């Protein structure tokens, strides 16, 4: 096959990859424009997530545009309007390795160093180690329902933690899907370059391969970013749900205790009343401590995105 025909065939392959990149950009546009999915309490902290969607779309658009320019340039070379050397020019050394940029973020997120100690080892059941009989379980569930219906500040607090878990899970899935699609596109580009020019040792071809190698590395960087955002999105959503379950459990448990105290017809000595009041105050302080730990943890996580 002549060089002009090779260039035209190669250009058609690149154009196909460009179309596939355009489809990936459509996935990015499905993301929520704000962070309401993470709840009013924490969504505002995760500023980097919303900005990352926009930045990611810009980066994919940039790679897509380089494919457009390359396809036009190769067809111009094939038609004799310029030489390959003139089109390539002097390619630079390429971007810094994607793994060098992202690995540190993944290590921090997966290592959970950003999670405050109060939440680091917690689980929804950890606050209620004492076994419950059926009556106690009913009292706790009913107590939570009553508190949500009759005490507006408690309801608002839990609503602020609720968010939209299904939307968060969908966002994490979309990041993972994009990582898979971009990984395949990057691999196909690498194979396309190797299969169609790998045996050619001409200086202009080597320069072209260096130039396109930058696009391969850019796609790897996008894959790494998607992978990191999958982990970050899931980690944020999981921690918010954990804190929400703990707070709901604390509220339900306290209301169940108060209900039992009210139903008790016996005269309660003053020391017992003081102790019960202390339990109420202690529960309020613990709820506040968990909420503070959650906001601090999410702020720590957000810095890994912003950085």
> Which band does the percent of strand residues land in?
under 5%
Query: Number of helical runs?
Result: 11
Specify the helix fraction band.
over 70%
The biggest sheet, with number of strands, parallel, antiparallel or mixed sense and barrel status, is: none
Average pLDDT reading:
81
Radius of gyration: 28 Å
Overall body shape: rod-shaped
Task: Give an overview in words.
The protein is mainly alpha-helical and 307 residues long. It has one domain. The chain is 80% helix and 0% strand. It has eleven helices and no strands. The chain has helices spanning 3-28, 39-43, 47-78, 84-88, 98-111, 117-120, 134-150, 152-162, 165-197, 203-263, 270-306. Helix 3 (47-78) packs parallel to helix 11 (270-306), helix 7 packs across helix 8 and helix 9 (165-197) packs antiparallel against helix 10. The longest helix has 61 residues, at 203-263. It is rod-shaped. The two termini are 49 Å apart. The model is unreliable at 125-131 (pLDDT under 50).
């Amino acid at each position: 096959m002549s060089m002009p025909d090779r260039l035209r065939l190669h250009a058609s392959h690149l154009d196909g990859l460009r179309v596939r990149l355009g489809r990936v950009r459509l996935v990015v546009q499905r993301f929520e424009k704000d962070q309401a999915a993470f709840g009013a309490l924490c969504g505002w902290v995760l500023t980097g997530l919303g900005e990352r969607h926009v930045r990611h779309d810009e980066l994919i658009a940039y790679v897509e545009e380089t494919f457009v320019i390359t396809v036009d340039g190769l067809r111009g070379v094939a038609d004799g309007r310029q030489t390959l050397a003139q089109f390539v020019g002097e390619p630079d050394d390429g971007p810094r390795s994607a793994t060098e940029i992202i690995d540190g973020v993944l290590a921090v997120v997966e290592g959970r160093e950003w999670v405050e100690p109060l939440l680091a080892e917690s689980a929804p059941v950890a606050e209620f180690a004492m076994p419950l009989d059926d009556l106690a379980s009913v009292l706790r569930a009913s107590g939570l329902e009553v508190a949500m219906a009759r005490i507006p500040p408690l309801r608002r607090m839990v609503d602020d933690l609720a968010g939209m878990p299904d939307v968060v899970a969908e966002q994490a899935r979309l990041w993972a899907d994009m990582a898979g699609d971009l990984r395949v596109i990057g691999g196909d580009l690498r194979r396309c370059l190797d299969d169609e020019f790998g045996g050619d040792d001409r200086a202009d071809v080597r320069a072209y391969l260096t130039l396109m190698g930058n696009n391969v590395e850019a796609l790897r960087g996008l894959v790494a970013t998607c992978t990191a955002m999958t982990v970050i999105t899931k980690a944020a959503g999981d921690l918010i749900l954990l804190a929400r379950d703990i707070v709901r459990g604390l509220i339900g448990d306290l209301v169940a205790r108060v209900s039992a105290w009210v139903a008790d017809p016996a005269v309660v000595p003053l020391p017992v009343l003081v102790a019960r009041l202390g339990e109420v105050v202690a529960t309020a302080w613990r709820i506040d401590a968990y909420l503070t730990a959650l906001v601090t943890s999410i702020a720590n996580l957000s810095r890994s995105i912003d950085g």
